[in-house]
Amino acid sequence: MEVLVREDRVSIYLGELEGRVGSNQDELSRLETRIKQLEKQNSYLAEKVEDAENRSRASNIRLLHVPEGSEGRDMIGFVGQLFIKLFGQDKLTSPLVIERAHRSPGTPNPNPKTAPRPILVRFLHFQDKLNILRLSRNKKELLFKGNRVHIYPDFSAGLMEKRRLFTTVKKKLRDLDIECDMQYPATLRVHVEGKKLFFRSPDEAEIFIRDFSQQSP
């Protein structure tokens, strides 16, 4: 009789244990679902924040490789004159209205081999930014005091990294004499055989390059 009672107790205990395990598994499953929901929500919010940041920079450009100290004490005046030197007064059909201009934060490095801090420029009119970028694209080399100056849109660090991922495929396309450019926010536009193709990831572009190379004589 005592053995049967013990077996009954063991059976009850095992039943309760299985119930708790099942309950824990259900709770774990609910938690995993909730975590996935939160991760998705966090990703969505991060994208919204990044988009808002980039929209706030819509009228900004970034100047690279302008020697430190060239600006003197009047950065806005210096940048206005720099554009005239780079592109010529005749290319600037209307006065540029610059709201702000400054070096990116940080301490200047006296080592001449160290790249100077970028200059961030904000225009009052969005169209002025577009005109400067267009002039920069059309002129293959921009020189100032023997330095090759580069002009780019001013994007957030996250978006710059997304666009940077296309660097290799853009080089491959240009080696094939295929025109390409980046569209906002991070889409590669390719001009080939009278058509415009759009790639949202470098992998998509790599597949196109492979197929195009195989078809070419």
Summarize the structure.
This protein has 217 residues and is α+β, with helices and mostly antiparallel strands. It has three domains: 1-41; 60-154, Alpha-Beta Plaits; 159-215, 2-Layer Sandwich (Rec A Protein, domain 2).
Report on this model:
- Keywords: Coiled coil.
- InterPro entries: Transposase_22.
- GO terms for molecular function: single-stranded RNA binding.
- By secondary structure, the chain is α+β, with helices and mostly antiparallel strands.
- Helix content is 52%, strand content 18%.
- The chain folds into 3 domains: 1-41; 60-154, 2-Layer Sandwich (Alpha-Beta Plaits); 159-215, L1 transposable element, C-terminal domain (Rec A Protein, domain 2), CATH 3.30.250.20.
- The protein contains 6 helices and 9 strands, in the order αβαββαβββααβββα.
- 12% of the residues are buried.
Structural class: alpha+beta
For the sheet with most strands, the description reads:
4 strands, antiparallel
* Order of strands in the sheet with most strands: 2-3-1-6
Give the class-level CATH name of the largest domain.
Answer: Alpha Beta
Task: Please name the CATH architecture of the largest domain.
Answer: 2-Layer Sandwich
Protein name: L1 transposable element RRM domain-containing protein
GO molecular function: single-stranded RNA binding
Keywords: Coiled coil
Organism: Oryzias latipes (Japanese rice fish)
